[in-house]
């Protein structure tokens, strides 16, 4: 959980060290803060991160990740239905936190790029889109003007706090893989929270096409779906060149 | 090895579809002894260990083949019926085929498509099946075994002790042709 | 506020589109149709209330209704079918009520788009398609896609709506009002009635929505119920016994569709995937149990299998995607195709033989060419009747004698006789285009073809190999599967019966003694079931099983459950004694809708729907003499090619007196008049159909 820190002195110290070409390691920063990793999953300076303000830095990695095997997916959509039926009490693939329906017919890009596509109308391959549970920088968390996306135990998934979410939808466009949905019934954004460590989509798949694995960083491996609209605080540029 | 470990090993093997002979268990214990630093199991202790495993675990069962050899499996992962199939397999392809043909003719009742014996766990080759069939048909110990060919050329076998030729032919044709023509 | 706000499942609105005027309105599903649940229930109710008996099939006054039920689009397993109800184009000699059932993703997406059903009426004055998205419907100009096949139509509409849209379209066949036409969505999922859409100038319906379906019950209860249901699942058509020995199985039966085993792989997956033993307790491997390609094409089907496919929410995946690289070079068609059952063998079934045998490479190529053509042109096979008629007409010289010489000689019959799949490129497009006498006649459907050529229907009714039953359609699981029960079921509809309630039990693979134990629980006595070929005389329990089968079919078609899988009358679980659960429908319906209905109460709703179908048929035929004029049985049911005697082992033939008795017992079970086979006034009243009885009474059509 995030704990606000009196960062007056520390911020100054850190900011004075930061210089072009001299990246600051996370360990160094934490040391400076005198904080333990166990005590703080993420922290921010001067209050919530937002455009024009300072970033949220989430240091705790997720414990797990749901990944998909496209050669096994049989396009039944039971994963999407389990996600929403059993978590929300309604059948709502449009707000499902694992996403297959958008790839079922023509594959991720096929419809507007030609006809030799994946999906039911092409080779049959179905790509399952899953939340990467990004390490820092977590694009959705960064983008949120209300710091509503946080790390949550027990598995450190990146979770939207509905109390803080105002339904502004900025995070939807911040995710390169378009994994966040806006639920018009709750007027909140929603994303994969790994069902607290027992993902219902994995449990529901009749083809063993989804697996819950130890977290690895796939953000550099899976092609993005969109060019995300970044809502990064300008100060990010100080660390990220 | 303790009885509870032995039970676990039997269960794992059953899950993989393996029926364990005494020799298999001895080999496993010997293999573990090489790596284990704890109490070793002497060969003379193994029968006692097996008896304990069977008595104290409801799912651990023993079956005997015709020669009186014992085989072990867990009913949690393998049915007695499947264990019997594996037991038959150990008695040679001819005996196995005859017993299966007779059992199906009696129990269901139905003739058996010979292609079944190419499937797991029978895993016979076409040549082996043809050879066994030659050995069966018309020979005294197997005089109840008859063969028939369906209209699309597939061979079935049945026991006349339980099925008459007319009924067997109709059932074979239904399975081989009728089911596909009535999808 | 809609009344539906009280219930889950239904999304609350039925869309009504008048193509003549362009007027689009909506109705409250629950307020108007709750007693009919959905699906065929809504379809029959609309036809009864709004389509007069003398309406012809292609009149603008005919209506076509696409309807789902409260379970469609939810996590309820096997909920993906859309019921399509209309006056049936191939029903001969008059177009009576009929339904088709289209799988795929259309049903779910229609509900996410905000509608439980779509009623199409009237006729547009130019080709149109209907765009249904996020609660709104718009009639769009289809002149750009008219004349195109189903595939191109789907691509073009999808490009306008987005990749998640589901498109139900007709091909050139439906456009040309060929009665033997289908409507298709999601590549391979078809329903008859394509010509009715064509007659309305309606090319396609595209549905898309980000809506949701409310589950009324507690979400944890719902999760438990769904998992419980899945625990009872077998393989395709609810086979609960594998077809080869498996470690977990007490029984095995080479005849079943549970074909998974160690060593059997999805061979064209990259890399191949082993199906393995598929213990029934492992709910994550249900999709590997079945393989239509392997079942219908033989062991070589495994080599070509990419994966299973099918409807929204179904774990079974009874359609198979197959890859046959050779066809790309040989015939210029895509190397992947997909379908199941008679759809899969559409092309193959025309041919008597192939150069390399009936199960060789050429036969698979014929399947691929057949699917490629039929599923794009939108040609229907009438459950294989098209192909059986074709063979008879060719080999007995009927084509040659009835069709003009020029037309006959324009076909490459040498290719056909040799078993060259390329022949299909000549035949199928011509059926779709009504080109020439031969193709036009085949496209009429059997009844109208026989009439056009002056052939007596009795010729067809006496030939066992033709499978022909009545009204222009074949049998669908009759005595060969289930003796008298199957015969009764096949008398009740105006097209092939499309009922699998009975065969999902009789073909479950269990030994007869186990089946009899289960039958005693389900229908009152072990005598309700026999093994095929060892039939016994009729008894009241078989009549109960027949009634149960018919009612459950209508229930599934209305609630949105798949009657090709349900009811779940048995299960693969030894610990349950292989018992299924006959209350599954009640459990799922009550939880989803919040409308608690017991099994008996749901069966009563199903009976209302079934009897309304009966009333529609009576009114359409203009007679109450159903027993003699509608519930007829072809002569071949009573024949045997080896002159065996009924009720001896080895014959499936029925006995005439016994069947007469069977029909009377069924009428009694149904509460119908035994003389006419028509529902009595009391039965109509009991089911809340007193007004239906009133209208029939005025016309002299009441027993």
Tell me what the structure shows.
With 241 residues, chain A is of the alpha+beta class. Chain A has helices at 8-17, 26-33, 78-88, 101-104, 139-143, 170-174, 200-204, 236-239, and strands spanning 42-43, 57-58, 64-68, 90-91, 149-152, 157-160, 181-183, 188-190, 210-214. Chain A has a single domain (60-233), classed as Alpha-Beta Plaits, CATH 3.30.70. Helices cover 22% and strands 12% of the residues of chain A. In chain A, strand 7 and strand 8 (188-190) form a beta hairpin. Chain A is globular, with a radius of gyration of 19 Å. Chain B is an alpha+beta fold and 183 residues long. Chain B folds into 2 domains: 3-87, Arc Repressor Mutant, subunit A (Orthogonal Bundle), CATH 1.10.10; 92-181, Arc Repressor Mutant, subunit A (Orthogonal Bundle), CATH 1.10.10. In chain B, 50% of the residues lie in helices and 13% in strands. Chain B contains 7 helices and 6 strands; from the N terminus they run H-E-H-H-E-E-H-H-E-H-E-E-H. Chain C is built from 30 helices and 20 strands. The radius of gyration of chain C is 24 Å and the shape is globular. Classes of the chains: A alpha+beta (241), B alpha+beta (183), C alpha+beta (703). The interface between A and C is large, with 46 and 55 residues.
List descriptors.
heterotrimer; A: 241 residues; alpha+beta; two-stranded antiparallel sheet; two-stranded antiparallel ribbon; 8 helices; B: 183 residues; Arc Repressor Mutant, subunit A; 2 domains; three-stranded antiparallel sheet; 7 helices; 50% helix; 13% strand
């Amino acid at each position: 959980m995030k704990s606000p820190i009196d960062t007056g002195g520390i911020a100054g110290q850190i900011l004075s060290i930061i210089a072009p070409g001299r990246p600051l390691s996370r360990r160094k920063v934490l040391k400076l803060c005198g904080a333990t990793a166990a005590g703080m999953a993420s922290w921010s300076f001067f209050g919530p991160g937002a455009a024009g303000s300072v970033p949220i830095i989430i240091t705790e990695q997720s414990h797990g990740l749901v990944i998909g095997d496209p050669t096994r997916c049989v396009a039944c959509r039971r994963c999407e239905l389990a996600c929403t039926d059993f978590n929300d009490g309604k059948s709502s693939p449009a707000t499902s936190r694992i996403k297959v329906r958008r790839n079922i017919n023509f594959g991720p890009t096929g419809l507007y790029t030609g006809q030799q596509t994946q999906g039911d109308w092409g080779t049959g391959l179905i790509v399952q889109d899953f939340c990467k549970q990004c390490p820092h920088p977590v694009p959705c968390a960064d983008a949120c003007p209300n710091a509503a996306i946080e790390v949550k135990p027990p598995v450190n998934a990146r979770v939207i706090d509905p109390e803080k979410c105002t339904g502004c939808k900025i995070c939807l466009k911040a995710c390169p893989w378009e994994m966040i949905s806006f639920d018009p019934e709750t007027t909140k954004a929603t994303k994969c929270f790994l069902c607290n460590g027992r993902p219902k989509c994995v449990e529901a798949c009749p083809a063993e096409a989804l697996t819950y694995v130890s977290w690895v960083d796939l953000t550099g491996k899976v092609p993005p779906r969109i060019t995300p609209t970044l809502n990064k605080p300008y100060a990010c540029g100080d660390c990220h060149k | 090895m303790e009885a509870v470990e032995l039970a676990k090993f039997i269960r794992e093997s059953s899950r993989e579809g393996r029926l364990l002979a005494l020799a298999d268990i001895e080999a496993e214990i010997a293999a573990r002894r090489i790596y284990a630093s704890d109490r070793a199991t002497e060969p003379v202790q193994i029968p006692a260990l097996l008896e304990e495993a069977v008595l104290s675990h409801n799912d651990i069962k023993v079956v005997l083949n015709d020669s009186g050899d014992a085989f072990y499996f867990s009913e949690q992962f393998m049915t007695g019926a499947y264990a019997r199939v594996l037991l038959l397999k150990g008695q040679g392809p001819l005996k196995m085929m005859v017993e299966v043909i007779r059992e199906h003719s009696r129990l269901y009742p139905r003739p058996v498509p010979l292609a079944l014996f190419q499937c797991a766990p029978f895993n016979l080759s076409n040549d082996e099946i043809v050879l066994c069939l030659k050995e069966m048909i018309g020979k005294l110990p197997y005089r109840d075994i008859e063969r028939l060919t369906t209209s699309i050329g597939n061979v079935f076998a049945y026991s006349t002790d339980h099925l008459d030729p007319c009924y067997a032919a109709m059932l074979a044709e239904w399975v081989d042709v009728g089911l596909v023509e009535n999808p | 506020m809609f009344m539906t706000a009280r219930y889950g499942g239904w999304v609350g609105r039925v869309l009504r589109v008048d193509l003549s005027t362009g007027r689009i309105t909506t109705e409250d599903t629950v307020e108007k149709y709750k007693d009919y649940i959905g699906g065929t229930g809504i379809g029959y109710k609309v036809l009864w209330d709004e389509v007069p008996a003398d309406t012809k099939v292609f009149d603008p006054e005919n209506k076509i209704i696409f309807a789902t039920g409260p379970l469609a689009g939810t996590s309820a397993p096997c909920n993906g079918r859309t019921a399509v109800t209309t006056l049936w184009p191939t029903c001969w000699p008059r177009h009576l009520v009929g339904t088709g059932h289209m799988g795929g993703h259309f049903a779910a997406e229609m509900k996410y788009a905000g509608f439980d059903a779509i009623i199409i009426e009237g006729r547009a004055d130019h080709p149109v398609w209907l765009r249904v998205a996020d609660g709104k419907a718009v009639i769009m100009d289809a002149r750009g896609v008219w004349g195109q096949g189903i595939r191109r139509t789907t691509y073009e509409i999808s490009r306008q709506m987005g990749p998640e849209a589901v498109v139900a379209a007709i091909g050139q066949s439906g456009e040309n009002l060929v009665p033997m036409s289908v409507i298709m969505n999601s590549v391979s999922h078809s329903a008859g009635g394509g010509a009715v859409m064509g007659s309305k100038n309606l090319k396609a319906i595209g549905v898309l929505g980000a809506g949701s379906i409310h589950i009324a019950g507690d979400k944890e209860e719902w999760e438990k119920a769904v998992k419980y249901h899945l625990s009872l699942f077998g393989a395709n058509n609810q086979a609960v016994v594998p077809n080869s020995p498996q470690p977990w199985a007490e029984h095995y039966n080479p005849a079943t569709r549970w074909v998974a085993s160690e060593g059997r792989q999805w061979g064209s997956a990259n890399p191949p995937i082993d199906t393995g033993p598929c213990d029934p307790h492992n709910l994550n491997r249900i999709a590997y149990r079945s393989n239509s390609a392997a079942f219908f094409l033989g062991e070589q089907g495994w080599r070509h299998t990419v994966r299973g496919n099918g409807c929204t929410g179904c774990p079974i995946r009874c359609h198979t995607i197959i890859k046959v690289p050779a066809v790309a070079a040989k015939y210029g068609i895509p190397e992947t195709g997909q379908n199941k059952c008679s759809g899969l063998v559409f092309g193959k079934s025309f041919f008597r033989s192939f150069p390399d045998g009936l199960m060789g490479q050429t036969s698979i190529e014929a399947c691929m060419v057949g699917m490629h053509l039929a599923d794009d042109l939108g040609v229907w096979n009438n459950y294989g009747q098209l192909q059986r008629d074709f063979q008879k007409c060719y080999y007995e010289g009927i084509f040659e004698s009835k069709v003009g010489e020029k037309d006959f000689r324009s076909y490459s019959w040498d290719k056909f006789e040799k078993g060259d799949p390329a022949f299909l490129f000549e035949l199928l497009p011509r059926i779709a285009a009504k080109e020439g006498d031969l193709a036009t006649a085949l496209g009429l459907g059997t009844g109208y073809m026989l009439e056009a050529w002056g052939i007596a229907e009795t010729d067809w009714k006496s030939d066992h190999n033709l499978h022909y039953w009545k009204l222009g359609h074949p049998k669908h699981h009759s005595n060969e599967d289930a003796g008298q029960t199957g015969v009764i079921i096949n008398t009740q509809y105006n097209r092939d019966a499309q009922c699998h309630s009975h065969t999902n039990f009789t073909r479950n693979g269990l030994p007869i003694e186990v089946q009899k134990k289960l039958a005693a629980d389900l229908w009152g006595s072990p005598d309700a079931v026999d093994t095929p070929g060892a039939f016994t005389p009729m008894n009241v329990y078989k009549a109960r099983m027949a009634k149960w089968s018919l009612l459950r079919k209508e229930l599934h078609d209305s609630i949105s459950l798949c009657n090709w899988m349900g009811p779940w009358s048995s299960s693969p679980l030894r610990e349950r004694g292989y018992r299924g659960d006959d209350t599954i429908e009640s459990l799922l319906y009550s939880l989803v809708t919040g409308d608690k209905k017991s099994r008996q109460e749901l069966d009563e709703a199903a009976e209302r729907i079934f009897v309304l179908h009966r009333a529609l048929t009576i009114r359409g035929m203009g007679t109450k003499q159903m027993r003699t004029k509608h519930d007829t049985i072809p002569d071949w049911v009573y024949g045997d090619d080896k002159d065996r005697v009924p009720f001896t082992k080895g014959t499936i033939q029925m006995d005439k007196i016994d069947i007469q008795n069977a029909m009377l017992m069924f009428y009694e079970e149904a509460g119908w008049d035994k003389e006419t086979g028509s529902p009595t006034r009391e039965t109509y009243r009991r089911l809340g159909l007193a007004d239906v009885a009133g209208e029939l009474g005025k016309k002299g059509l009441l027993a």
